[in-house]
Amino acid sequence: MCLAVPMQVDAIEGFRAQCSAKGVSREVNLFLLQDQAVAAGDHVLVHLGYAIQRISAEDAVRYWDAFDEVLAQSPVV
Question: How far apart are CA 18 and CA 10, in angstroms?
Answer without folding.
Answer: 5
